[in-house]
Amino acid sequence: MLYKKQIIFSIALSSLFLIFSPVFSQDNQPIPGAELNLTDTIILAFKNNKDIQIQEREITIANADILGATSNFLPQINLEGTYTHNAKVFTPSNIFTGFKNDNLLDLSLAQSVYSGGFNMANLNQAKLSLDAQKETLRAKKLDVEFDARRLYYGLLLAYETERIAKDALDQAIEHYEDVRRMYEQGTASRFDMLQSGVQVSLLEPEVVRARNDIESLKADLNKLLARKVDFPIETKEKLSYSITEIRESEFLKSAYLERPEIKLKSLGIDIDKWGIQMARSGYRPQVNIQADYYYRSNNLSNMINESHKNWSAGISVNIPIFEGFSTKAKVDAAKARFAQAKLSKDNLVDQIAVEVRKACLDLKESEAIIRSQKDNVGEAQEALRIAEVSYANGVAINLDVLDAQVSLAQIQRNLASGIYDYLMAQAYLDRSIGRSVLSLAPGALPKVSHGGANEKKG
Hints:
Layout: H1 2-20, H2 38-48, H3 50-70, E1 76-85, E2 101-114, H4 118-184, H5 190-224, E3 241-243, H6 248-258, H7 260-280, E4 286-297, E5 309-318, H8 326-392, H9 398-433, E6 455-457
Parallel strand pairs: 3-6
Antiparallel strand pairs: 1-2, 2-4, 4-5
C-alpha cells in the first residue's frame, strides 16, 4: 500500500513539474513571451545589456566618491592603544623620562580647518562626476535603443520582404500553370511554358533568402537582448510610419539642451575648472587642529586613573614657500585640460549640427521614395492584371506578364525599403538630439502598426 502511494506521489510531482517548468527560467523568473513589440524590445534590451549594467555600477562608485570627498570636512576620531618595552630608561632625580614598560590608550581628534580650497574642489568634482556618470548611462541607453530599433525594424522589413517574395512566387506558379494548360490546349507555345517555368525557378531562392534573413535578424536581436540565439521571436506588427514634421532649428536646440554627450562635455568643462582650483591649493596654507585625550602607565591593570590621565591640543599651519615648481606644473596642466574640454565641446556642437542636418535630409529622401512608390503599387497591380488578361486573349506576349510581375515585386520592395529607411531616419534623428522613443507620447511614437504600410499623420 505504501509503495502504491509513493508511485502516485511521484507521478503527481512529475506532472506538476511538466506543467510549470516552461513558465520559469533558470533564474526562477517568468520567461518573457516570444511575441515582441518595439517598446518591449527596448525595455528588455535595457534590462539585460551588460554595458548598461556596468555603467549602473559606475554610478554607485560615483556616489561612494562623493561620500569619500565629504569625509575630508569631518573630524577624524581614532582610539589607539600601544605597548612599548624600553630596554633602558634614563631617570635622573625628580624628572620623568618614560616607562620601561610603556602602555598608552589614546583618543585622538584631527580636523582639517583649511586645505587651500582642495577639499571643496574635490567635493564639487565628485558631485559633477556623478552627474557625468548618469549622462553616460543615458548615452549608453540611447545607443542600445538605436540598435534595438535597427534590428526590430530590420526584422519587420525581412518579414515584409518574405511576404513579397512569396506573393511573387505564387503569382509565377499560378501563371506557369495557366500557360501549361494553354500549351496543352495548343493556345500557347512551348517556349512560353519553359520561360514561365524558369521564372518560378528564379523566384524560389528569393523566398529561401528572405527566410534566412529573418532567422539571422532574430539571432542578432536575441543577442542584443542577452538571450539564446534560437529563442523564439514573433511579432504581429508590420512596417508603417508616421510623418515627422521637419523643424531643423528646433531639433538643433533640443540636441544642444538634451543630448547626453553635450551635457557630458559641459560637465567635463566644470570638472576641469575645479581641477584648476585643486592645483592652485598647492600655493595656499594648510591649517589643521589636533587634540588628544590619553592614559599612560607602566601598569596595564592600574592604567585608568587620574594620575595617569592627560590631554593635549594644538593647531598646525603649513605655508608653502618653494616646492620646486610642482604646483605651477599642476596648474598649467589643469588649465590646458580646461582649454581642451572647451574645444572638445565646440567640436561636438559642430558634429551634432551635421548629424541633425543628415537626419533631416534622410527623412525628406525616404518620404519622397515612399510617396512615389506608394502611388505606383496600385498602377503596377493594375498593369499585371491587364497583362494577364491580354496574354490570355492573345493580345500580349508572355514576357509582358513576367515583366509586370517583376515590376510589381520591385516596387513593393522599394516601398518596404523606403519605409524602413524612414523609420531608421527617425531613429537616427532621435539619437542625434538625445531623445528616447520611450519618452514620447503614445500618439507620437514612430508608427509600427498592424495595418501595414499606411501613411499616418503624426
